[in-house]
Fold these 2 entries.
Entry 1:
Amino acid sequence: MIKKQPLTRHRGIYLLPNLFTTGAMFAGFYAITSAINGRFETAAIAMFIAMVLDGLDGRVARLTNTQSEFGVQYDSLSDMVSFGVAPAIVMYLWTLSTMGQAGLFAAFVHMAGGALRLARFNTQVEVADKRYFQGLPSPAAAAILAGGLWFCVENGYDVENIKYLVLLTTITTGLLMVSNFRYSSFKEIDFKNKVPFIVAIIAMLVISFIMAQPQRMLFLLSVGYAISGPIVTLVLRKRKLQSRKS
């Protein structure tokens, strides 16, 4: 009788998508070290670089068919560093540290909100509606803080005059991440299909505006996206009520 050889399991990880994830985590770490050294504009830019790399790792994994459970968990840990810990520490070092326990509380709310947001996302990823995120995504929450910081530093604003606004914004981003507001995931958009020529022109104009005034445009876009959550949630609830009545 011929004995069947046991199946050998190949241990290892996919290199390409995890390189992007590692790059995103390093950008978040670099943002922290830059803030420690007082280079807050560099810290804000580093967080935006982390967002770009974080958006690429998942797409690269899908395009190359290299998705894995390790990649999912590693991406979450990277997001926690880049969009949970980094923004909280950067904002604390920039202005919240001058506000005593209130500033410490605000920074912790954002960090804890990021942790809870990622934990909830990981546990609901198989059953959640792919068209929407529940709660503000952590990269968008970090973009609000990084964009606001970059805008203020670029325009030479005195942080003493806006510290209470910074405090409120930092707490708000943390709470929005754990809220039940629905945010569009844009996953229903198919980039492979053809689009009217006007769409290409609009995309070109948007990119031009962002490149011309990145600190202002990125901040406004992230704030607009944060506001869209309550609006989308109210619209969906209204449609649900109308369908029940009919």
Entry 2:
Amino acid sequence: MTAANFAASSPDRTVARVRLRPTMTSDLEFVLSLEQDTENLAFITPWERTQHEAAIRFPDFRHFIIEGGPGLDAVGFLILIGCRSQNQSLELKRMVVSAKGSGFGRAALRVAKKVAFDDLGAHRLWLDLKARNTRAKALYDGEGFVVEGQLREAVKVSDGFESLIVMSMLRPEFTGRRSLGLEMFA
């Protein structure tokens, strides 16, 4: 898959330029360092290097480096799973951005939605997030994802268990947002 390159306008009209390009094995140190960063660790369950290597090679996955800013430097990564699903249901497995509050996460999410619905033919794009991840929840709410439910105490964490919130967007919702100008790309 070739790189997807867009500038996405956020609701406050600032523009973050991002490009998704397929992750290469040489990018994995960057990916692993983002997962191990204490700012991110509380919100994700990190993978082993071998899991990322498999995700790069397995046709049902799309593992991307998020490049952003004027120089299109690596600013994060995201993983889509279910790209060959007969049910046309893709999972946004993980999205981690290094520069929080820069607009790169919102822009990358918009590109991921476009890739999922336009390029991969998804009917449904879904994700789960830890209940304490209020920043991500606000992003997904603002980008049109709908809460489907909660998996109570589904993940073991150091101080007990944490619940997961399941959210999704359907193709008609994405199309409707696009017709309203809410899925803008420059």
